[in-house]
Amino acid sequence: MEPQDMKSFAELSALLPVDAVRAWLDGDFSIGDEPAMISAIRKDPRIKMSSAAIEDAILDAMDEELDAEACFKRLTGS
Fold this sequence. Notes:
mainly alpha; globular
């Protein structure tokens, strides 16, 4: 799937993994930017789960009102 806004995709992909989680939890992105944030999150070699599992974990964190650091720890298995 081709990103709609290449500038936004590049900016989100360049984020540090925990900052990408923070942006996602804060809603600082547009629809269709999820692959860019997943790309940024995957920069951490401890993240082994599928894209769908990353998305599910972040949605669960939203429901549980976790902050970015707690969510990121969950993603890395720390």
